[in-house]
Structure formats: C-alpha cells, structure tokens
UniProtKB/TrEMBL annotation:
Domain of life: Eukaryota
Record Gene3D superfamilies: Phosphoenolpyruvate-binding domains
Protein name: Carboxyphosphonoenolpyruvate phosphonomutase-like protein
Species of provenance: Clonostachys solani
InterPro entries: ICL/PEPM (IPR039556), Pyrv/PenolPyrv_kinase-like_dom (IPR015813), Pyrv_kinase-like_dom_sf (IPR040442)
Length: 272
C-alpha cells in the first residue's frame, strides 16, 4: 500500500525550472539498472515511472492492446522494488481504462504507486474526451486516491492536443489554444502537472514549450526527445518545465543495443 508521505515527496519534486527528471521503467531489470545509479553519497534518481508502451512490448503487443490486468500486474511487480529503494513510483494508466478509472487508481495505490499519467483521449480511436468530461474523470481519479488514503496522489494529466493522430480531431490553427484551455482546466481539477507530447515524429517545438510554461505557471511536464535537434534536460529546465520523463525511450535504446551486439556476433565479430 502506498504511503501518502511518499506521494508528498513526489509532489514536492515537481518544481518549475528545477524539474524532476523521472526515467521510465518496464520490468525489474530496468528498474534495478536505475537503482544502481544511486549511492549513499549521491542519488541522481529521485523517482521512477512506468511506461505502458514498453510494458506492452515485453508482452509482444502494441500499447493500445495492453489490458488493465496486464498493466496492473506489471505495476504490482515494480512497486515493492521501487519502495525498497526509496523511490516514489508513478504509473502510466493510459486513459484510466474508461469507466474503470477509479478502480485503476485505487489498484495502483494498493500496489504501491503514488502517481499516475492519465490521458485525455480514447486509446482505441485517439478521439478526445471533452474538456468537461475529462475534468470530471480526473476528479473521480483524485477522489479515489483520497479514499484510498493517498490525498496527495500526483496526477500528471496528459493532454494530446499536439499528438498525432489525436490532434487531427482539432482545428490545426488552434492547437495551442486547445492545449492551454485543457491544461488550465486539468490543473484546476487538481492535477499536479499537465503532460504535453507531440509524438516521436513531431515532438514539441521550442516556442510551444515556452508558451505552455508561461500560460500554465510552469506546471508543465514534457518528454525528453531522441530527435537530434531536441532540447537537453538542462535546456528544458531553463525553459521552466516542472517534470521531464522519457516514455519508452530507454526501452528503445536498450533493444537497439541488443540488436547491435547480436548483429556483430552473427557477422563474426565479438562483444564490445
């Protein structure tokens, strides 16, 4: 069972211009790799989060096919290891599994999680929940957290206004207006931060990050990008964001390393 004190610790790490850099894990081995970076003298890893895309990949299925049970089973395996290492755990609960959103949050807390990403689009279609509907859903999630003994549960409300294909449902000349309107509404509903992502191809433009930070008082979460022209975590901090995650990128990098090493062996080479 998650401790509300741990939730408070996680919430206090979300500081504009001094962002929480929160790496995403998918199994015990990836979590242990991050834990190994911490020592008594230095603890660069302050908290960890799950990545549903990477969890799904370990099961050989796409993200949108990851079931409620499969996701919660992975969270239940990771949470006690993170707790033993003194690391608050945030979770990727997709859209909260529709009408099961209260159940999903309660189950995550019982497993040991103290935060969650919850998306504002339907996973099957990419279509948006209306602002009013999503605000109501976020309030349901936070009430469930409070009822489960975790009133400081860290809600990182995801807004897909810039994310294709969901952004295709919106007028292209008003993406920022929609993002700001949703962001303000989600924060008012009780979210700690609002997470904006433009997808692996589009990403978020520098000016978009700056505008979102200005309009939302810095309570903005972003994903560190693998694009060559992407801003570094230090540069994103200078922009004023409060949280930086990596999504499934560590999993992607790890699998590319596996392919590279295996390819060299199969070509007559050696492990390097």
């Amino acid at each position: 069972m998650a401790s509300n004190n741990t939730a408070k610790t996680l919430k206090e790490l979300h500081v504009p211009s001094r962002p929480l850099i929160i790496p995403n894990v998918w199994d015990i081995s990836s979590l242990n790799a991050l834990i190994s970076l911490n020592s008594e003298e230095n603890r660069p890893v302050k908290a960890v989060a799950t990545a549903s895309y990477a969890i799904a990949a370990t099961l050989g299925i796409p993200d949108e096919q990851l079931s409620y049970d499969q996701n919660l089973e992975a969270i239940a395996r990771l949470a006690p290891v993170a707790a033993q290492a003194g690391l608050p755990l945030s979770t990727d609960l997709q859209d909260g599994y529709g009408s099961r959103i209260a159940e999903a949050v309660t189950a995550a807390i019982k497993a040991g999680a103290v935060g969650a990403n919850i998306e504002d689009t339907h996973p099957e279609t990419g279509a948006f929940y209306s602002i009013e509907e999503q605000v109501a859903r976020l309030k349901v999630a936070l009430k469930a957290a409070a009822d489960a003994g975790c009133p400081d549960f860290v809600l990182n409300a995801r807004c897909d206004a810039f994310y294709p294909p969901s952004s295709a449902y919106l007028p292209q000349d008003s993406l920022m207006d929609e993002a700001v309107a949703r962001g303000k509404a989600y924060l008012e509903a009780g979210a700690t931060t609002v997470f904006f992502w433009g997808g692996s191809g589009r990403g978020l433009r520098d000016v978009e990050v700056s505008t979102l930070v200005e309009k939302l008082g810095g309570r903005v979460a972003v994903k560190a990008s693998m694009r060559p022209d992407a801003l570094s975590t230090a540069e994103l901090a200078e922009k004023g964001v409060a949280r930086i995650s990596v999504g499934p990128s560590l999993h992607v990098i790890a699998m590319e390393a596996v392919k590279k090493a295996a390819s060299e062996l199969l070509a007559g080479g050696k492990l390097t």
